[in-house]
Write a structure and sequence with these properties.
The complex is a heterodimer of chains A (about 270) and B (about 325). By secondary structure, chain A is an alpha/beta fold. Chain A is about 30% helix and about 30% strand. Chain B is built from ten helices and 18 strands. In chain B, helix 3 packs across helix 4 and helix 6 runs parallel beside helix 10. Classes of the chains: A alpha/beta (about 270), B alpha/beta (about 325).
Chain lengths: ~270, ~325
């Protein structure tokens, strides 16, 4: 079985701070991390590999040269191969253009590996910097394969794949026979840590880097100019103003004051 | 692309078991504001099996035209089949704007449709407006974990598409005297649309009040120290007020409560009348999902917790003492 996992290096958004005076994003000192949901996707791939002899897990990322860090981390966790699409020309791509670029890179990886298709392509449900949850489905659409998003459970039986998809009511159970793109949620699994031996080995690995020309993209469909959407403005979220803070020693006093306010304002 | 040939603002209405999702109705209200700004009509697309009666409800909430794709094969949501239907709608009706609720299904369908139509899609919007040019939609959405808001436009492609978070816009008033046109459509679905097969739906949550529809939410965070508060003290207070229990990402990550209850940038956006945040520090990630609440009460032992910056009322103290006292006081008040 051939499995591809798409991974992204992202700023750790929990560490991003806003300059309280200038209301701008402070990016300095914010660490870059392996997108957490992509780690769940990789863990799922590795578990399928362990249960199905002969399975290979390949990683693909798009980003600057630095993104090799997450690819090496993925190799250290147990992936077999890794490829990076890195080219200034793809910078500024929106989700439509990114999905197109990555789908062309997937085709290039397939050609280089001499395989007809990946049985499963796994992505995280979304990247924590953009939170769009669009690129997985865009890749699937470009490749003409079905998608099963928000996977909280994946079962593989031969070529049949059964997925529990998270939704508002609980889980939709879907099945598919043949190539499919699946996006992973956090509840899918608990990602493993890289081993020391794996990390040492991954350090020495050559990671092939594709340019836009290598993957044969139509340059009118990539980058800022090839993207239908534009960012017009960046704003800081509106602030709510602080209300009444009660900090008496005795909780009963605070509760009594709160009740007075709530009943006076008919909030309960 | 002749942009002037594309007219009308349409909501892709989502229904579940014969009931329209609130977000679809909320979008009819905000969609009408956009349509008025452009000088266009507001309409809806209804997809499913046996759903035609819901068309009247969409009209009562403001749709002037409802295109109905009613087909037994569309009984259960299927990405490809539904995308084929929306693609058909676009090709026949040439809409200017398509609005989709940012539910899991909406976020699954949106990008598939946008890719087929090779247009832009803005995800998880929390603001919608018409630009000064009178034709371009300005989509506002949180990014970078809720730290910033980005205004996105899609000036040269049609349709202009966005998924919009539930509970951001108020549901318009229902008016059953409104009239509108119901247009029956034939779903041109193909065998290859059904490569993935629906097996079953496993319902979770035990039928209690859902956070996305609750008027009162009692939410717990890291300060709850374990799962017990979520089934005990927080639930008692929520039940008393006819509300639902919510949670921060920290509590969900710790495994204390199911992810269906998570409020925040990676969870759900909620807009209840009353939001009681208990032992929640108020990371920006969490605030992105709940600052639209009418009234916020924060209970936290850390006086410096950021949640106090956004609350209407705050109590500094031990939640395990404050919450039972508050529950008791409300119980007495109601008696």
């Amino acid at each position: 079985m051939e499995i591809l996992v798409c991974v992204k290096q992202v700023p750790d958004t929990a560490e991003v701070k806003i300059d309280p005076v200038k209301h701008t994003v402070i990016r300095a000192g914010v660490p870059n991390i392996f997108n957490p949901f992509d780690k769940n996707a990789l863990e799922a791939a590795l578990q399928i590999k362990e249960a199905n002899a002969g399975t290979k897990v390949t990683l693909l990322s798009m980003g600057p040269e630095q993104a090799k860090e997450v690819l090496r981390e993925g190799l250290a966790m147990g992936a077999d191969d890794a490829y990076l699409l890195s080219d200034r020309k793809v910078g500024g791509s929106d989700t439509l253009a990114t999905g197109y670029c990555l789908s062309m890179a997937v085709k290039k990886v397939m050609a280089d590996k001499g395989i007809e298709h990946f049985d499963i392509i796994l992505c995280g449900k979304q990247a924590i910097d953009g939170d769009t949850a669009q690129v997985g489905p865009q890749i699937a659409s470009e490749l003409g394969i079905p998608q099963l998003t928000y996977a909280a459970k994946i079962e593989v039986d031969g070529t049949k794949v059964t997925v529990h998809q998270q939704n508002e009511e609980g889980y939709i159970v879907s099945e598919v026979d043949g190539p499919v793109l699946i996006t992973a949620v956090k509840e899918l699994n608990e990602p493993r840590f890289p081993t020391i031996r794996g990390t040492m080995k991954a350090k020495r690995r050559e990671i092939p880097v594709y340019s836009a020309a290598d993957i044969g993209v139509d340059e009118s469909k990539i980058g800022l100019d090839g993207s239908p959407t534009r960012v017009r403005k960046i704003l800081t979220p509106p602030q709510r103003t602080q209300g009444l803070i009660l900090k008496e020693e005795d909780p009963a006093v605070n509760v009594a004051t709160l009740m007075e306010k709530l009943t006076a304002q008919k909030l309960i | 692309m002749d942009l002037a040939a594309y007219k009308g603002v349409y909501v892709i209405a989502e229904q579940f078991e014969g009931k329209l999702r609130n977000v679809s109705l909320e979008l009819l209200g905000q969609g009408k504001i956009l349509a008025d700004g452009i000088g266009d009509d507001i309409g809806a697309v209804l997809i499913g099996s046996g759903v035609k009666p819901l068309a009247q409800e969409l009209i009562a909430y403001g749709a002037t035209k409802v295109y109905v794709y009613d087909d037994p094969q569309l009984a259960n949501y299927n990405t490809s089949a539904y995308a084929t239907v929306v693609e058909d709608f676009f090709n026949k009706v040439n809409p200017n704007v398509l609005l989709v609720g940012a539910t899991n299904i909406g976020r699954d369908l949106g990008p598939r449709v946008a890719n087929r139509l090779q247009t832009g899609l803005t995800a998880d919007c929390t603001g919608l407006a018409i630009d000064n040019d009178g034709k371009t939609v300005v989509w506002t959405r949180p990014a970078l974990g809720g730290n910033i808001l980005a205004e996105i436009i899609c000036p040269q492609n049609r349709p202009q598409m966005g998924t919009v978070r539930p509970n951001v816009f108020k549901k318009p008033e229902r008016d059953d005297s409104r009239t509108g046109e119901v247009i029956d459509m034939v779903a041109p679905i193909r065998e290859e649309d059904f490569i993935t097969k629906f097996v079953e739906l496993i319902k979770m949550g035990g039928g209690g009040v859902k956070i996305e529809e609750a008027d009162v939410i009692v939410a717990g965070g890291r300060g709850m120290q374990g799962p017990d508060a979520f089934t005990g003290m927080l639930k008692d207070l929520a039940d008393l007020m006819g509300g639902a229990v919510g949670a921060s990402r920290a509590a969900v990550d710790a495994g204390w409560i199911d992810a269906l209850h998570q409020v925040g940038q990676t969870g759900k956006t909620v807009g209840p009348k009353l939001y009681i945040a208990v032992g929640i520090s108020g990371a920006i990630q969490h605030l992105a999902g709940m600052t639209g609440s009418d009234c916020i009460i924060a209970i936290n032992k850390d006086e410096d917790a950021p949640i106090f910056q956004v609350c209407d009322f705050g109590i500094v103290g031990d939640a395990f003492q404050v919450v039972p006292k508050l529950t008791e006081a409300i119980k007495q008040y109601k008696a």
